[in-house]
């Protein structure tokens, strides 16, 4: 098995671990890379010195490729990018911003750049900016999301139709069957977030992991579009947001309600009532907390079995 993404990153399997805030530290990234996928350190929840520490620890834990995800709206982004170059990280995933800002700089340093998008329009902009690949993330995904609410099954073939660079599918993918479906639709690989949140190596709090595996269909909702759209598990904070909407809250009032550190309080510190709990719809299909290596093996085994079964169809 081989394709453009596997060749680009020099990985065994077309499985990319998403760079999720408060969940994607060096332990998870190293575990996924050691299992044959591509592990990603999520820099969005890290101070610059913390990112450097995670990169160093990841390099000590694996001699295989791994990357760093950087939200382009991060306030100290220049420091993050300097650290990435200094520490000789060769793969960077960017999100939440204009890919033209940093792509040329990173590529001049010999770094492969991938940008996360939620629409065909932004996929084309990323391709024009010179990125090596795009992640097309559907409406099902957890965390910050696109405003258009385009589902993965529609987004992937739409992006594939318009761009020529390698395409990674994201949003609602936690199994080998879903991976096969995404690749049939035109993806070269998949990016997996929620499934790796519920892994032993994820840095997310055990309370959050347990809530993820306990989640049922309909337990998440995309909200706060006036700020940045985010898919949340329903809890006390989520209900406060809905009550604010029902009272006609302004954008300023929503910002005040959100405050600062909500995601950290929930996903990292374990406050399941007052915290912001970002997770995808696919949480309803996640039932066990497993080592990351077992998740990769399970997905690839199911992928091969599903592919063989499809080949036998009349």
Keywords:
314 residues, three-stranded antiparallel β-sheet, 15% strand, globular, single chain, alpha/beta, 2 domains, TIM Barrel, eight-stranded parallel β-sheet
**Which sequence of SSEs, written as H and E, runs from N to C?**
HEHEHEHEHEHEEHEHEHHEEHHHH
Proportion of β residues? 5-15%
- Number of DSSP-assigned strands: 11
Rg? 18 Å
What is the CATH first-level class name of the largest domain?
Alpha Beta
CATH architectural name of the largest domain: Alpha-Beta Barrel
Largest sheet: 8 strands, parallel
First CA to last CA: what distance? 24 Å
Mean pLDDT level: 95
Describe the structure.
- With 314 residues, the chain is an alpha/beta fold.
- It folds into two domains: 4-204 and 290-311, TIM Barrel; 206-282, no CATH class.
- The chain contains 14 helices and eleven strands.
- The chain has helices at 4-9, 26-34, 48-61, 77-86, 103-108, 120-129, 152-162, 176-184, 194-197, 206-214, 236-246, 251-258, 262-268, 292-311, and strands spanning 15-17, 39-42, 66-71, 91-95, 112-117, 133-137, 143-144, 167-170, 189-192, 220-223, 230-233.
- The chain has an eight-stranded parallel beta sheet with strand order 1-9-8-6-5-4-3-2. A three-stranded antiparallel beta sheet has the order 7-11-10, with no helix packed on it.
- Helix 3 (48-61) packs parallel to helix 4 (77-86).
- The mean pLDDT is 95.
């Amino acid at each position: 098995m081989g394709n453009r993404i596997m060749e680009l990153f020099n990985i065994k399997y077309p499985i990319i671990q998403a760079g999720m805030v408060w969940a994607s530290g060096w332990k998870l990234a190293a575990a996924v890379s050691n299992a044959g996928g591509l592990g990603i350190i999520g820099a969005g929840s890290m101070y610059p010195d913390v990112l450097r520490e995670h990169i160093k620890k990841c390099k000590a834990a694996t001699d295989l490729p791994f990357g760093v995800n950087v939200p382009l709206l991060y306030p100290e982004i220049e420091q993050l990018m300097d650290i990435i170059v200094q520490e000789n990280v060769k793969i960077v995933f960017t999100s939440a911003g204009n890919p033209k800002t940093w792509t040329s700089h990173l590529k001049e340093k010999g770094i492969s750049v991938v940008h996360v998008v939620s629409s065909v329009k932004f996929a084309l902009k990323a391709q024009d900016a010179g990125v090596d690949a795009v992640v097309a993330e559907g409406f099902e995904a957890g965390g910050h999301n696109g405003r258009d609410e385009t589902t993965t099954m529609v987004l992937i073939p739409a992006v594939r139709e318009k761009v020529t660079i390698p395409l990674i599918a994201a949003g609602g993918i936690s199994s080998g069957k879903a991976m096969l479906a995404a690749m049939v639709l035109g993806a070269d690989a998949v990016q997996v977030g929620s499934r790796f949140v519920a892994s032993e190596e994820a840095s997310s709090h055990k309370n959050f992991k347990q809530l993820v595996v306990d989640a049922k269909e309909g337990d998440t909702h995309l909200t706060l579009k006036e700020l940045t759209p985010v898919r949340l598990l329903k809890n006390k904070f989520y209900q406060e947001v809905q009550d604010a909407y029902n009272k006609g809250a302004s954008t300023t009032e929503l910002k005040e309600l959100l405050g600062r550190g909500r995601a950290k309080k929930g996903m990292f510190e374990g406050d399941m009532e007052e915290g912001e709990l970002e997770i995808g719809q696919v949480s309803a299909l996640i039932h066990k907390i497993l080592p990351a290596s077992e998740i990769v093996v399970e997905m690839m085994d199911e992928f091969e079995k599903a592919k063989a079964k499809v080949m036998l169809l009349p």
